[in-house]
Amino acid sequence: MTTLTHSSDTLTRDALAVLQPGFRGTTAPDWLLRRIGEGLTSVGLFGRNITSPAQLAALTAQLRAERDDVLVAIDEEGGDVTRLEVRDGSSFPGNYALGSVDDVDLTRAVARELGGRLAACGVNLNWAPSADVNSDVNNPVIGVRSFGADPALVSRHTAAYVEGLQSAGVAACTKHFPGHGDTAVDSHHALPRIDVDFDTLHARELAPFRSAIAAGSKSVMSAHILLSALDQDRPATLSPQIVTGLLREELGFDGLIVTDGIEMQAIASTYGIERGSVLAIAAGVDAICVGGGLADEETVLRLRDALVAAVREGELPEERLADAAARVRALADWALRVRGASWPGAAVQEGTAPGNGGTGTGAGTDIGLIAARRALRVTGTVEPLQEAPYVASFAPVANIAVGDETPWGVAAELAALLPGTETGTYGGENTAAEVLAAAGERRIVAVVRDIHRHAWMTAVLDGILAARPDTAVVEMGVNHAEPAGSPHIATYGAARVCGRAAAEALTGRGA
Asked: How many CA atoms lie within 13 A of 166 on its CB side?
């Protein structure tokens, strides 16, 4: 056993400091407030914790009543992955739409506006942006969360996003290091493996992270992926060669390193969350994200006690844990210093949020809708809809990062413009005949998502188009398949504002 140079209380506080746990409910439970008083420095928020801007502001104020420098983190990418607007859909298009426009000033402005929303509600750490180069078009978990497949494009937009977000006083957490784009496996379910040579890794996966570091990203999130060129045994999150050797030493990153959710199956089913957390801190990670699935006090205590035991048993150097805790506190100090200095929205009242005319987080800011309109790509000639159509939405299973609680599509937006619009949702068990029967004489608008990845979707759409060639097709995922439909509209994401932009184009009633 090692000889401890700090008291047991200090060791316990350091172990709590490196955790970023979640919880259930829209107010902080007593156990969480108690642990904040004992040294917990970060809290993670998810869609289940948020109902309105006023409620979120009250929640963050409740947390800061325990300690004013607490880091309040959220997974708010905009686009398909939203927690602020989990029940309505995002007011901001996601990375893929921004990358398709390829205007870094627009990306910077969108990130600043999003950051302003977060800051006004008391959130000061965002687990975004995704800097993954989506080089595998069949990637099941990244897709529209990436700016695109070109490393140079992803690099410049990642840097712009970091700059915009942090100019609003919210720390960026660039993810998923060293790059999750070239995977065909979702690390929520299993351990993805990337087998590329070192030169490809540097030219493709690492380029956006170098740009993010140069732009001053305050934190970086590690991915649970096996990168065989650097470590054939351990995933990146647990690999000293990748976390310390590559990110810290070679790329020169000096900020906070955070894990992706430690309870994801890529770690939990192989190492267990306790062992995984110890190995991650030992590898050079500074903070353990947990709470997407395991969101209770027992989880926090299990991880705290595992870290303390690892130090006492000589498996984890005490200095490494102390250094990790110090980096968490340093970011908390930065966030405390800039809070209120970069964004004028100090108070948030029910139904209001800065920058959207006082209509709430569900209403959409001008910059978000402007960006969504600019991202739209139309193939063919649009004959504006004059009568209420039938919207057939083809719904693949949502990945865990996106979730299935957030609405998407164009039906609601079309119904607002053309009252009487009807809609149906279809899956792999449905047929073209069922869609045609439900539509009757109405014009069909078929809404698809990543159709190139789903043979059943292609088959059903082909059947519809054979019978009704005037069917309009709206692709709200990765726009990879050949355009089909009259017209074909690509939105480059499924945010609510993307649906609004498509509805405007279909009806000729846009700005």
From this structure: 22
- Antiparallel, parallel or unpaired: β 193-194 and 226-227: parallel
Look at residues 313, 285, 292, 276 and name the one whose alpha carbon lies nearest to residue 221: 285
Task: Give the H/E segment covering residue 175.
Answer: strand 171-177
pLDDT of residue 236: 94
Q: Which of 260, 286, 450, 488 is catalytic?
A: 260
Parts of the chain with a pLDDT under 70: 1-8, 183-190, 340-365, 397-403, 510-511
pTM of the model: 0.92
Q: Which residues are CB-contacts of 367 (< 8 A; sequence separation ≥ 6)?
A: 92, 106, 109, 110, 113, 355
Half-sphere exposure of 149 (CA within 13 A, CB side): 11
Closest Cα partner for 436 from 412, 482, 487, 471?
Answer: 471
Asked if 15 and 307 touch (Cβ cutoff 8 Å), the reply is yes
- pLDDT (tens digit, 9 = 90+) per residue, 129-147? 999 999 888 887 899 999 9
Token pair, residue 97, equals 């739409």
Q: Which two three-digit tokens encode residue 183?
A: 């995977």
Q: How far apart are CA 290 and CA 124, in angstroms?
A: 18
Catalytic residue among 157, 176, 180, 188: 188
Axis crossing angle, helix 273-283 with helix 318-338, rounded to the nearest 10: 80
pLDDT for res 138: 85
Residue type, 246: L
Here the tokens at position 140 are 């099941």
The answer to whether the CB of 281 falls within 8 A of the CB of 321 is: yes
Confirm whether 260 is a catalytic residue.
yes
Q: Indicate the DSSP class of residue 238.
A: G
Exposed, middle or buried by CB within 10 Å (0-12, 13-18, 19+), for 462?
exposed
Describe the crossing of helices 104-120 and 151-167 by its angle, rounded to 10 degrees.
Answer: 40
pLDDT of residue 140: 76
Instruction: State the DSSP code for 287.
Output: B
3-state secondary structure of 189: coil
